[in-house]
From TrEMBL:
Residues 8-40 form the TFIIB-type domain. It holds the Pfam family Zn_Ribbon_TF. One of its GO terms (molecular function) is zinc ion binding. One of its GO terms (cellular component) is nucleus. Belongs to the TFIIB family. PROSITE patterns: ZF_TFIIB. GO terms for biological process: transcription preinitiation complex assembly. This is TFIIB-type domain-containing protein. Keywords: Metal-binding, Transcription, Transcription regulation, Zinc, Zinc-finger. The keyword Metal-binding applies. Residues 54-74 are annotated as: Disordered. The lineage of its organism: Eukaryota, Viridiplantae, Streptophyta, Embryophyta, Tracheophyta.
């Protein structure tokens, strides 16, 4: 494999001037592009020996700038190290010769404590859930930070069964903090227990707010207020509605929030408004389609629609 180094110029004794060169990665040779003279042999690449594939490498350079050192996750404090261990029992060769036992070099994968390894496992679980939900890296990192604060406050419940609920609750809080809320049903869909874990996620969210509200200065409590408009565009996208339908639904929700006081969940209101829009525009979507896209039960959508129907003229004027 030959890599171009067009931006580099090296003096070529054969051409008697500085010329552009290429690097042959297979042989480590630096070759003049003008006369093909090998200017340097067995070149040693000082770059990283691995690739990171991290989100920060989107700029084109996917190499880690460090050859050795700590792990790439900024939320982990674990360090890599090399330890020299001495065997107390001589091996067969040393016993025969009477020599002292030679030291054995031990290179552990990670010299962090058990708590650091547990933290790394939790971060992997949060990242996996975030990927399956299609959440951006900002939300994922915010959820990691929330989990780390909870762990530092000794508020993480123990037990394999509660892990998914903790991870999902951290993602729920992160989404609320950053103005990109997700419903409990959406978060439950990426847990091992599925929809049955919705109550557990809700309880864990309350637990996190209580622990960090007392231990962390109340920073995590600023999760804002969820509005129907926060869910609307994502739900419309799942249904494949056009721009006009999305605008009509958005305008109806805006008028509803300004002029009416409907005591229903924001996701139920969003689903009902979308169902009313597809009925008015003939978009060819049934209440079953709307329920599948929004995660709201068909009966709940119809009940919310009944509450909004008397105000349809105001909503869709």
């Amino acid at each position: 494999m030959v890599g171009s180094a067009a931006d580099e110029r090296v003096f070529c004794p054969d051409c008697h001037r500085a010329t552009e060169v290429v690097l042959d990665h297979a042989t480590g040779d630096t070759i003049c592009t003008e006369c093909a003279l090998v200017l340097d042999a067995h070149f040693i690449d000082e770059g990283s020996e691995w690739r990171t594939f991290s989100a920060d490498s989107a700029g084109g350079d996917d190499r880690d700038p460090s050859r050795v050192g700590s792990t790439g996750d900024p939320f982990l404090d674990a360090k890599l190290s090399t330890a020299i261990a001495y065997s107390k029992k001589p091996n067969a060769k040393s016993s025969a010769t009477g020599d002292n036992a030679l030291p054995r070099m031990s290179v552990p994968f990670d010299a962090a404590s058990a708590s650091d390894r547990a933290l790394a496992d939790a971060f992997r679980g949060i990242a996996d859930m975030a990927d399956r939900l299609g959440l951006v890296a900002t939300v994922r990192d915010h959820a990691k930070d929330t989990y780390k604060k909870l762990d530092d406050a000794k508020g993480c419940p123990r037990g394999r069964g509660s892990r998914d609920a903790v991870y999902a609750a951290c993602l729920y809080i992160a989404c609320r903090n950053l103005g990109m809320p997700r419903t409990y049903k959406e978060l439950a869909s990426v847990t091992a227990d599925g929809a049955e874990s919705r109550k557990a996620i809700g309880k864990m969210t309350t637990h996190i707010k209580r622990v960090l509200g007392e231990e962390g200065g109340g920073q995590v409590l600023d999760i804002g207020v969820v509005r129907s408009a926060d869910y609307l565009r994502r739900f419309c996208s799942r249904l494949g509605l056009g721009n006009q339908e999305v605008r009509d639904a958005g305008e109806a929700v805006r008028r509803l929030e300004q002029g009416l006081d409907v005591r229903r969940n924001p996701e139920s209101i969003a689903a009902a408004v979308i169902y009313m829009v597809v009925q008015r525009t003939g978009a060819g979507r049934s209440v079953k389609d709307v329920a599948a896209a929004t995660g709201v039960a068909e009966g709940t959508i119809k009940e919310a629609q009944k509450d909004l129907t008397p105000h349809a003229q105001m909503l869709f004027a």
